[in-house]
Amino acid sequence: MIDYDLKKIRALAFDVDGVLSTNNVYLFSDDGQPVRTANIKDGYALQLAVKRGLQIAIITGGRSPLVRQRYERLGLQNIFDGVSVKIECFHQWCESAGLQSEEVLYMGDDIPDYEVMKACGCPVCPYDAAVEIKAISRYVSGYCGGEGCVRDVVEQVLRAKGFWMKGLTDKVAFGW
């Protein structure tokens, strides 16, 4: 369980490589872009969180039209790619969204995420994160990046807010 008052979380932000996808990239794309994985259960949890009113952001150094397309289809509107200094992007997003840092859960896995994780209220990471990231995390998921770690933390937040398994007959719970 995440050691934080998850009821006060209004927003969640995620890195891509090593969090929303595995640490592996497949280098066989025709246009030279690395191909990434995406976990279906992570996707379900993210789209449900959006529909339940949480703000979701992706902050990544990579640029991939396929990544953008995947998460836009799930309803995410805050996709920041090609970000070289994540902390600046994080502060700008929080300011524009009217968020206090303690209202944000951020999941990262490696050194480029370090400053954001120190700044957010609830830093969490996948099981296979770098040792420096694990050291500053309030929670280390039992799942590796791209293998359900996002579902793990999103589900915990939604459960704490009473939104998980609520209204199973609602279209909101099943709309993709």
UniProtKB/TrEMBL annotation:
Record: residues binding Mg(2+): 15, 109
Essential cofactor(s): Mg(2+)
Keyword vocabulary terms for this entry: Hydrolase, Magnesium, Metal-binding
Highest taxon, organism lineage: Bacteria
Membrane spanning residue stretches: none
GO molecular function: hydrolase activity, acting on ester bonds; metal ion binding; N-acylneuraminate cytidylyltransferase activity
Residues given in the record as substrate binding sites: 17
Alphabetical list of InterPro entries matching this protein: CMP-NeuNAc_synthase (IPR050793), HAD-like_sf (IPR036412), HAD_sf (IPR023214), KdsC_fam (IPR010023)
NCBIfam families according to UniProt: KdsC-phosphatas
Family according to the record: Belongs to the KdsC family.
Complex formation: Homotetramer.
Protein's UniProt name: 3-deoxy-D-manno-octulosonate 8-phosphate phosphatase
Organism, as annotated: Alloprevotella rava F0323
